[in-house]
Design goal:
heterodimer; A: mainly alpha; two-stranded antiparallel sheet; 2 strands; B: 197 residues; mainly alpha; Rna Polymerase Sigma Factor, Chain: A; 9 helices; globular
Chain lengths: 154, 197
């Protein structure tokens, strides 16, 4: 076994995930190779440092989502679709559609009296086109997502 | 009851089984996401989105597969997306001076009133390790995180990443070697240092 091949096998040895036969080969190589022994020691040291310093961090909550998922007032995915979602979506969709429509038809115009901002809820003739089902679905999905993420925020 | 059995019950209409799965995995999954992203808010979002995807796509779970592998695959992809977006964001909005200020804020905790010397040293050590983890290539970081903090077997990691076990061990080797270099560099002149590929 070469020193290059030892690299992955040393990792197996450190974490005790190595076949018995391979382990014997590795240990035999280590017995005669100072460079690989030093490499193993350094890797072990780094691994222990990582585990020791970050494993017990107290700032990570044990059950970060428990409040969200167990709260009966919060929309629970396990509860399936609820009327509240559809009510929110039904209210938001027309409002959002109007805003999008108006934004799309806003025009800055300059006439004799100066600059003016004009908008219409009706599509302009040159840009008028049918709103596709896909567009409406996409809009509805965005609003359902927004409503859900609001509820999931702490 | 196994995770796979619970998922089967959930697919059969038993909604409480899903809550059991969430209770069982929210902690490990959150730790997983936090180690990758280093921010509680983002980790919680990833965790939440992972369970939402499981909920929506439970019927796509393959028979014979392991639930935890599938769960971590989803979470890993989400973490990668967040990291990718954040990189773009940083490039545009974070100036070197702001980044430096942010690092100082982490290194010097706000609650200095109750901080002992030991506490400060521990915080500094954690900061160095987090910085070192963030500095190594992402494919190595993924393996180091899954092995060190999630306690997964190399075989499991290989399944999640969809690569041979020898590749996982090799990434672990270079990950630890690079971490050591970054830590050594940060001990003297500050974070940084060379990378092994």
């Amino acid at each position: 076994m070469t020193c290059e091949e030892m690299k992955t096998e040393i990792i197996g040895l450190i974490y005790e995930e190595i076949d018995e036969q391979v382990r014997l080969c590795v240990e035999s190589h280590l017995a005669g190779c100072g460079a690989c022994r030093r490499e193993r020691d350094r890797l072990e040291e780094t691994s222990a440092l990582l585990r020791g310093s970050l494993a017990g961090e107290e700032e990570i909550p044990a059950r970060p989502l428990s409040r969200v998922w167990n709260d009966p007032h919060v929309v629970s995915p396990a509860g399936g679709p609820r009327w509240s979602r559809f009510v929110i979506a039904a209210c938001l969709l027309p409002a959002a559609s109007l805003v999008v429509l108006a934004a799309g038809n806003t025009r800055l115009q300059k006439d004799a009296s100066g600059w003016s901002l004009q908008f219409s809820l009706l599509p302009r003739r040159e840009t008028a086109r049918a709103v596709t089902v896909a567009e409406v679905s996409k809009l509805a999905e965005e609003h359902v997502r927004a409503a859900l993420s609001q509820r999931f925020k702490r | 009851m196994s995770d796979e059995q619970l998922l089967g019950l959930f697919l059969g209409g038993d909604k409480d089984s899903f809550n059991v799965l969430v209770g069982r995995w929210e902690g490990p999954l959150y730790h997983f996401a936090y180690r990758f992203l280093g921010q509680h808010e983002e980790a919680r979002d990833v965790c939440q989105e992972t369970f939402l995807r499981v909920y929506r796509r439970a019927d796509r779970f393959r028979d014979g597969a392991k639930f935890s592998t599938w769960l971590y695959q989803i979470a890993l992809n989400l973490c990668r997306d967040v990291a990718r977006k954040r990189k773009r964001w940083d490039r545009i909005f974070v100036s070197p001076r702001r980044a430096e200020a942010g690092e100082r804020a982490v290194a010097e905790p706000a609650d200095t009133g109750e901080g002992t010397e030991e506490k400060v040293l521990r915080a500094w050590q954690r900061w160095r390790l987090r910085h070192a983890l963030a500095a190594i290539p992402s494919d190595q970081r993924e393996v180091v995180v899954m092995k060190t903090f999630q306690g997964m077997k190399f075989r499991e990691i290989a399944e999640i990443l969809g690569c041979p076990e020898s590749t996982v061990k090799s990434r672990m080797y270079y990950g630890l070697a690079n971490l050591r270099e970054v830590l050594a560099a940060s001990r003297g002149t500050g974070p940084g240092g060379g990378r092994k590929e």
